[in-house]
Amino acid sequence: MSERARQRTSRTAEALRLVSVSKVYGTGDGAVTALDGVTLSLPSGSFTAVMGPSGSGKSTLLQCAAGLDRPDRGQILVDGEEMSGGSEAALTRFRRDRIGFVFQQYNLLPTLTVEENTSLPLRLAGRKANRERVRAILGQVGLGERLGHLPDELSGGQRQRVAIARALVTRPGVVFADEPTGALDTRSAHDVLSLLRETVRLHGSTVVLVTHDPVAASYADSVLFLADGRLAGHLSAPTAEAVAERMTRLGDGAAGRRAGDGPLMGV
Questions:
Q1: Are 191 and 181 in contact (CB under 8 A)?
Q2: 12: exposed, middle or buried (C-beta count within 10 Å: 0-12, 13-18, 19+)?
Q3: CA neighbor of 55 nearest in space, from 264, 230, 250
Q4: Left, alpha or beta for 40 (phi > 0: left; psi -120 to 50: alpha)?
Q5: Tens of pLDDT along the chain (267 residues)?
Q6: Which of 39, 156, 175, 218 is most buried, judged by most C-beta within 10 A?
Q7: Is the CB of residue 118 less than 8 Å from the CB of residue 100?
Q8: Which superfamily, per CATH, for 3-108+174-260?
């Protein structure tokens, strides 16, 4: 079966599912519960932001859901396929086949061109890069005229567009974006967030955005809130104002717990 056919037949209505996922760092009196039995389901073709106060567990949620860290308990499924507790090599293959990443610092190789950076995940996976597809994706993110440029010849917003193209080139089940606008100015941040939203609308991609910024979260279809390693609410059709108000309430609760209710359960 061709790669295109495999990707098409593997798509399910549910892009990401977590079932009772828990993660504890440390032991004994110093143990910190980063995730505490989190269960959630995200449909294919959705754009979801994840937010929470410092120490809420949002970074750990991304790391476990994306296969960058292993939960202590629970089940994680991407496109209906379980992310098993096998070898590191098996987990790496799973990530390459099923998951795309966009990080704050771009993670582009400085000696590779825009086109080469975009096709890199395919080459690392031992798959032949379809040059037409790579160039088509770069055209869609507005870099069709920059194929031969090096990262140092691009603006921050353009570098993040390369990172988005690189994340999409393998047709992943889920794209995880970790503070992707943290290093960008306001205009570039708007362009990148609009592009992420367009990938959902035009390509049926599923995007999970971890952010601390209510304005960034307002570009998503919905927002999941975390506190103390647990889900603490959900907001559909978010506005920046509504997200900020919810975050203020969560932050006030976290401050109260720091003052008198013991340690926060999150990292």
A1: no
A2: middle
A3: 264
A4: beta
A5: 344 344 444 457 899 999 999 999 999 888 999 999 999 999 999 999 999 998 899 999 999 999 999 999 999 999 999 987 678 888 888 888 899 999 988 999 999 999 999 999 998 888 888 899 999 999 999 999 999 999 999 999 999 999 999 999 989 999 999 999 998 999 999 999 999 999 998 888 999 999 999 999 999 999 999 999 999 999 999 999 999 999 999 876 654 443 333 332 222
A6: 175
A7: no
A8: P-loop containing nucleotide triphosphate hydrolases (3.40.50.300)
240 contacts: CB under 8 Å, gap ≥ 6: 214, 215, 217, 218
Measure the CA–CA gap between 254 and 241, rounded to whole angstroms.
20
Sheet holding 47-51, edge to edge: 99-103, 174-178, 207-210, 47-51, 222-227, 230-236
- Residue 37's Cβ-count burial label (10 Å; 0-12, 13-18, 19+) is middle
Q: Are strands 207-210 and 174-178 parallel, antiparallel or unpaired?
A: parallel
3-state secondary structure 116-185: HHHHHHHHHCCCCCCHHHHHHHHHHCCCCCCCCCCHHHCCHHHHHHHHHHHHHCCCCCEEEEECCCCCCC
Q: Is the separation of the CB atoms in 188 and 181 below 8 Å?
A: yes
| Distance between CA atoms of residues 105 and 199, nearest Å | 20
Token couple for 7? 């990707």
d(CA 63, CA 210): 11
